[in-house]
């Protein structure tokens, strides 16, 4: 299977919260990748082992490929931190997820485009969990 997309943690969190747009997006993909960082962030949100088992089963049913942090990914993330932490407050997890996408030439699907737009070589697919009309209600 050929993978084109790396999903950011926030998109999967929106799905877990029952967001219909996230549901439609995920079920429209034949398969996608996540960083091992995303997987660990999702685990941090689990309340018990049963939820973890459901997460594992769901990721498997979606044909999700987990990409583990390599030396190349780490080196690129380190570069991003040196370049962007002081000027843009880039966070560790974002640097690792962004470097995973650029290392493998994957499009990063995220609602947190502000976290990643400074990485020039990163292709972003911006996910909007709510319509403008929904945002204006608040």
Entry summary:
The chain is mainly α. Helix content is 57%, strand content 12%. Strands 1-4-5 form a three-stranded parallel beta sheet.
Detailed description of the structure:
This protein is mainly α. It has a single domain (5-131), classed as 5'-nuclease (Rossmann fold, 3-Layer(aba) Sandwich), CATH 3.40.50.1010. It has helices at 9-16, 20-28, 36-44, 49-61, 71-88, 92-104, 113-116, 132-135; strands at residues 5-7, 33-35, 65-67, 107-110, 124-126. Strands 1-4-5 form a 3-stranded parallel sheet. A two-stranded parallel ribbon has the order 2-3. Strand 4 (107-110), helix 7 (113-116) and strand 5 form a beta-alpha-beta unit. Helix 1 packs across helix 2 (20-28). The longest helix has 18 residues, at 71-88. Mean pLDDT is 93; it is low at 133-138.
Cα-based radius of gyration, to the nearest Å = 15 Å
The top level CATH class name: Alpha Beta
CATH topology: Rossmann fold
Distance between the termini: 42 Å
Total strands: 5
CATH superfamily, please?
5'-nuclease
- What is the count of DSSP helices, taking H or I runs of 4+ residues? 8
- Counting helices, strands and paired strands, the structural category is mainly alpha
Task: Please write the string of helix (H) and strand (E) elements.
Answer: EHHEHHEHHEHEH
Biggest sheet overview: 3 strands, parallel
**Strands of the biggest beta sheet: in what spatial order?**
1-4-5
Content of β-strand: 5-15%
Mean pLDDT: 93
State the helicity in percent bands: 55-70%
> How many individual domains?
1
CATH architecture: 3-Layer(aba) Sandwich
Shape type: globular
- List unreliable stretches of 5+ residues: 133-138
